[in-house]
Design a protein that fits this description.
Elements lengths: L4 H5 L8 E5 L4 H16 L3 E7 L13 E5 L17 H34 L3 E7 L3 H9 L4 E5 L3 H8 L1 H6 L33 H16 L3 E4 L3 H14 L5 E4 L3 H4 L15 H6 L7 E5 L8 H14 L3 E4 L19 H4 L4 E4 L4 H6 L3 E6 L3 H10 L3 E3 L6 H11 L3 E3 L6 H13 L1 H18 L3 H15 L1
Parallel strand pairs: 1-2, 1-4, 2-3, 4-5, 5-6, 6-7, 8-9, 8-11, 9-10, 11-12, 12-13
Protein name: UDP-glycosyltransferase
Family: Belongs to the UDP-glycosyltransferase family.
GO molecular function, one term: quercetin 7-O-glucosyltransferase activity
């Protein structure tokens, strides 16, 4: 796979082509955006990153990139986790409100900053790659004559739901009714109604608006970039290529964390405790349960206590990520663990505030992953060949868990409320489940093949050529 730098300079002494990026300012969206930037930078493109002040990336970790901060004062729009412990549907509602607020707040300053950059470097600029949620900013770029590409940080299957959302509403699947949650969505197997994106009744209009804008962002762009790969979602990718406008090329270039030279540590918003890797070195192969519920999910103190005692009662060694403020109102310190828990598990487990997840999942000692099933975590576990215990919270996580448990059969879902007896049984069974582990390792091998001279590497080259032709 060659560099585009020679082509970009073209023999006529033009400066190399520059790709502009604008991530949505949440950890699960920042990571794949910077991984994609790393992939394209390694192919010779210059990189400029527009970003909000909220969750701003650390420019010192990316000395070769040009950073442009965009004011995003939205009048105090809340973020997930503010106030009391919100239900999952309310967490999604608040997140979607924040998405719309970012678009409103950034439109005018982004227009001004992009116009100023184009005055200086228009001949360099090849395109803007923006998060699919940033429709307003994609529109601004096109109005100023900059071609656009969209990065979707979720699965191809999830975007298939977005495209089908009007149908789902017409058929009565959305907004979901409590009595119908276990019904199959016959038009979109393997989903059940409960696996679709759901919010409160009050939040349905907001979700409809965000999904409509997201689909429009893709349909009016020059291409859709997905952090997935054909061996994982071949049917879903074929569906998107069939249903999207012919002018929108689809580039499945995942798993991005395997293709990018930039480690996840370079974009982590929380400090990673790397001492846990030393502890893993002392554990037996495939013996440790790794637990992490991602960067946005909120838990009640009761959930934490039931999870803790379930882990303790499983008798399985564990590494548990409990990020600060995962329990709303608990402050910035470590979340409260139940009295007696640390004494009960002394020497058998480690609790940290944040971990280098990619390295943890690749460690030989890790035998299972209790996860919220965010797409990044799901793909990282798939690539590592680690079976998953799924406890989704909101958004696309329920659909991801459905694929893990029922389509790929590389994990099981922990249904309902978190209860210590159910947790202990599920954890012990998952660590001992040889059949699920074999399937997980086989899927991991297919992911590795996609990277090592496979379809994903070819698609990166196609994406680079596509950008050069814009």
């Amino acid at each position: 796979m060659g560099s585009v730098e020679d082509t970009a300079t073209g023999g006529d002494h033009r400066r190399r082509r520059r790709v502009l990026f604008f991530p949505l300012p949440f950890q699960g969206h920042i990571n794949p955006m910077f991984q994609l930037a790393g992939v394209l930078h390694s192919r010779g493109f210059a990189i400029t990153v527009f970003h909000t002040h909220f969750n701003a990336p650390d420019a010192s970790r990316h000395p070769d990139y040009h950073f442009v901060p965009v004011p995003d004062d939205d009048g105090g729009t809340p973020t997930p986790g503010d106030g009391g412990a919100p239900p999952a549907a309310d967490t999604l509602h608040v997140t979607l409100e924040r998405v719309l607020a970012v678009n409103r707040a950034c439109e005018a300053p982004f227009r001004e900053l992009l116009a100023a950059l184009l005055e200086q470097r228009r001949d360099e600029v090849a395109c803007l790659v923006a998060d699919a949620h940033l429709l307003t900013l994609l529109d601004v770029a096109r109005e100023l004559g900059v071609p656009t590409l969209v990065l979707r940080t979720g699965s191809a299957a999830c975007f298939r739901i977005f495209m089908a959302f009007p149908m789902l509403c017409d058929m009565g699947y959305q907004p979901a009714r409590e009595s119908e949650l276990d019904l199959p969505v016959r038009e979109l197997p393997p989903y059940r109604v409960r696996d679709l994106l759901s919010t409160s009744a009050a939040g349905h209009a907001v979700m409809s608006e965000v999904i409509s804008r997201l689909v429009k962002a893709v349909a009016t762009s020059s291409g859709l970039i997905l952090n997935t790969f054909d061996a994982l979602e071949s049917a879903e990718l074929a569906s998107l290529r069939r249903d999207l406008p012919a002018a929108v090329q689809v580039f499945d270039v995942g798993p991005l964390h395997k293709l990018s030279p930039s480690p996840a540590t370079s974009t982590s918003l929380l400090r990673q405790d790397r001492r846990c890797l030393d502890w893993l070195d002392t554990q037996a192969p495939a013996s440790v349960l790794y637990v992490s519920f991602g960067s946005l999910a909120s838990m009640s103190a009761t959930d934490i206590a039931e999870a803790a005692w379930g882990i303790a009662d499983s008798d399985v060694p564990f590494l548990w990520v409990l990020r600060p403020a995962i329990v709303p109102g608990s402050g910035a310190g470590a979340p409260p663990l139940p009295d007696g828990f640390l004494a009960a598990v002394d020497g058998r487990g480690v609790v940290v505030g944040w971990a280098p997840q990619e390295e943890v999942l690749e460690h030989a000692a890790v035998g299972a992953f209790w996860t919220h099933c965010g797409w990044n975590s799901t793909v990282e576990a798939v690539c590592a060949g680690v079976p998953m215990l799924c406890r989704p919270w909101f958004g696309d996580q329920m659909g991801n868990a459905r694929y893990v448990a029922d389509a790929w059969r590389v994990g099981v879902e922990l249904d309902g409320e978190i209860e210590r007896g159910k947790v202990a049984e599920a954890v012990a069974a998952m660590v001992m489940d040889g059949g699920t582990r074999r399937r997980a390792r086989e899927l991991g091998k297919r992911a590795a093949e996609s990277v090592a001279g496979g379809a994903s590497g070819v698609n990166v080259d196609k994406l680079a050529s596509h950008i050069m032709a814009l």
